[in-house]
């Protein structure tokens, strides 16, 4: 069953999601007659609803090479939750209509848990509407909270960037601690899963240096124990580096950094756990402190992408096209680890139903008993993922990131009145 | 006049100050009989007062290579202001006594404006006490606020890191702006001089993309004009990236981010201008926003050092030793620009008296008339400084930063009762 292919990006973007996009387009071109045109939905699923599909046929090989090394999402992404199909299926039906209007037979949805769920649902409604579409989920998320896959493309580059930054900041603080900052707090992403915070633990390669305290969303924050550990660390080594996940929660179950705002999915919008902790250190211990809020820098730091992550991102893109052409509906290419050292891996097919809406947290065995650090098992898992430096090319001191020529396909349907 | 050499690091450390240290040690070794032992003061001038001098003779060439690529200050640095010599000269006299006790004839002080002043004073009191010491200031500061020199080593690496980060975050925000963040605010260092903020302007290479608004300490903050510009930018291009110097001041002359704390120099300790601006955008415009506080990450990001900066850092170290051996007292090696494109430069000798306590701000001609951007003249100045990527070597996914064997020389004097 030949036809066109539609690729869409969903949720938070990463440093390597465009490498997946470039791999999808490249693989589709190599697939010859099996795949017609490759479209990219403008701003994710919203572009599908609105019949706003970018063309890619005019992109040159050089365009694709630049795309491969450009952070962010080239087609635009979105945070938009479709209405539950059993309450109101108009959005899902509209999606099928748009796919049909553009002769799209393959739908590749590149995202996290929510997106796997969306792809799963679209795969079912297409058949019911008499327009079967092969739906493939393509993994991506800096949070690394997808189940089944060894890692989510995007995570390892953010992890590498944060681990390297932690190692660098440690040298800085150590140099200055006698007369300057005693406590440094770095806030990293991770609302429910503390994988990025865990990754900074790699910075302390030989057990010396920071981070001295890692705060995970998986471990309930205990103010007294935290303050005691900070003071103990300052007493012992002169300074203390703390890494805090944005999603750290107190004993009442509330986020320490809850700002009272929510996003389109009803997720609480966080930010500011570092400043909450800094205020605590200030008021309760009176120790001079600084804090950093890395925010989007960590998920867009393509300048320090992990080579392993980049290979993963490309491989899931290629495999997704292969599965689509082979007619494997409702699946996701995932990464399977074969060995830790040397790191060997392969791509295998997983069912979207196994993945949709399941969050993969940092397991207990990866967190030290005191709750403030990572175990050797965690190091064995994380270490190979950050291996290799996949640098972009530079001109005039700056990376050559792509400004690709964007051109929308002609709309085929009346405007969406969603 | 042969003798030992004492090198000390002062004030905020940088990604390349250790490259200067390694160059000093290397050049002193090459100078043969002219220079005896090279000492490094522990925690800057405090180590001199306390007679705590690290030895370096046991460091191998491999140690020096690792030092060259390690951020932070290997000997430790400090923020400590000597008492004014005309009020109480005991500290300055003690410094001369320690130098004398260790047969130090060359004193190299690697720092910013305050350090140039200290080196200048020590050069004078030595002669008065009958123990002449050749004092050399060695330039360093991420703030780039030293006069005379084309750039301060350390600045250009931080500038490159911030410009690259701004380019990356711009791609990220652009991808997501329809349904997510509309306004992103990145806070960078720069208390009085907005050089680092200015450098992020390079990210917008062809006039498209962020940063759309740069806030300099040199330009009085006008809330109404700022909010109008943010809203206008969001209306026009869909999103707005703001870069704010920590030292932005309002019309009352106060820092927007004044936390009411001061450091050892009586400088106000800042932090949080981004969150102040985010609150404004929230409450006055109701636009979804995120902010990043880069903090120490920007001055320790050795993983993305500018090759030009690294060459500068090494060159001032080598020249400082050369000037010392030649008996040029009370001078500083500075960088002189010979041409913009291609960038050509040389090291020349400047008098410490020209440099001490003079702050070099971003000139009016470098800031656009509206106060929110950088001019072509500014780009011509900045562009060559961030050229070239001086990557460190890696092992297991992390940079190989040095943990050098630190060994103190035996104290020669009674403990300091300062």
Largest sheet of chain A: 5 strands, mixed
* Record field, number of beta strands of chain A: 17
Label the overall shape of chain A: elongated
Order of helices and strands of chain A: EHEHEHHEHEHEHEHEEEHEHEHEEHHEEE
Main sheet strand line-up of chain A:
3-2-1-4-5
Alpha-carbon Rg of chain A, integer: 22 Å
Structural class of chain A: alpha/beta
Quaternary state, please? homodimer
Helical amount of chain A: 25-40%
Amino- and carboxy-terminal Cα gap of chain A = 31 Å
**Quick one: which chains have the greatest interface?**
A-B, 77 and 76 residues
Low-confidence stretches of chain A: none
**How much β-strand is present in the residues of chain A?**
15-25%
Please state the average pLDDT score of chain A.
94
Note the total helix count of chain A.
13
């Amino acid at each position: 069953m030949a036809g066109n292919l539609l690729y869409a990006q969903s949720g938070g973007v990463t440093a390597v999601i465009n490498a997946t996009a470039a791999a999808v387009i490249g693989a589709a071109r190599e697939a010859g007659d099996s795949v017609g045109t490759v479209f990219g939905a403008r701003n994710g699923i919203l572009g599908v609803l609105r019949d706003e599909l970018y063309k890619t046929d005019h992109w040159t090989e050089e365009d694709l090479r630049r795309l491969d090394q450009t952070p962010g999402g080239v087609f635009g992404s979105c945070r938009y939750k479709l209405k539950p199909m059993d309450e109101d299926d108009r959005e899902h039906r509209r999606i099928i209509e748009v796919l049909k209007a553009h002769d799209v037979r393959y739908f590749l949805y590149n995202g996290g848990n929510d997106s796997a769920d969306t792809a799963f649902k679209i795969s079912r409604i297409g058949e019911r509407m008499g327009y079967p579409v092969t739906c493939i989920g393509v993994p991506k998320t800096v949070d690394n909270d997808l189940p089944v896959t060894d890692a989510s493309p995007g995570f390892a580059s953010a992890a590498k960037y944060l681990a390297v930054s932690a190692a660098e900041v440690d040298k800085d603080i150590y140099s200055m601690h006698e007369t300057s900052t005693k406590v440094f707090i770095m806030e990293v992403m991770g609302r429910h899963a503390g994988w990025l915070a865990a990754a900074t633990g790699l910075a302390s390669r030989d057990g010396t240096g920071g981070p001295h305290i890692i705060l995970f969303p998986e471990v309930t924050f205990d103010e007294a124990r935290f303050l005691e550990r900070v003071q103990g660390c300052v007493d012992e080594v002169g300074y203390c580096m703390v890494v805090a996940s944005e999603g750290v929660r107190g004993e009442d179950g509330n986020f320490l950094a809850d700002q009272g705002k929510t996003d389109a999915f009803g997720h609480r919008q966080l930010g500011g756990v570092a400043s909450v902790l800094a205020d605590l250190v200030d008021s309760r211990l009176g120790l001079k402190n600084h804090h950093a809020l890395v925010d989007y820098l960590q998920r867009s730091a393509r300048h320090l992408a992990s080579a392993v992550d980049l290979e993963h991102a490309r491989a899931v893109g290629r495999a997704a096209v292969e599965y689509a052409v082979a007619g494997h509906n409702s699946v996701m290419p995932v990464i399977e680890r074969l060995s830790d050292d040397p790191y060997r891996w392969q791509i295998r097919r997983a069912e979207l139903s196994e993945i949709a809406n399941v969050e993969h947290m940092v397991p207990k065995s990866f967190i030290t008993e005191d709750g403030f650090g990572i175990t050797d098992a965690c190091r064995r898992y994380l270490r190979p993922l950050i291996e290799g430096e996949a640098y972009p090319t530079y001109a005039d001191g700056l990376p050559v990131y792509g400004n690709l020529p964007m051109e929308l396909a002609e709309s085929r349907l009346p405007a969406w009145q969603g």
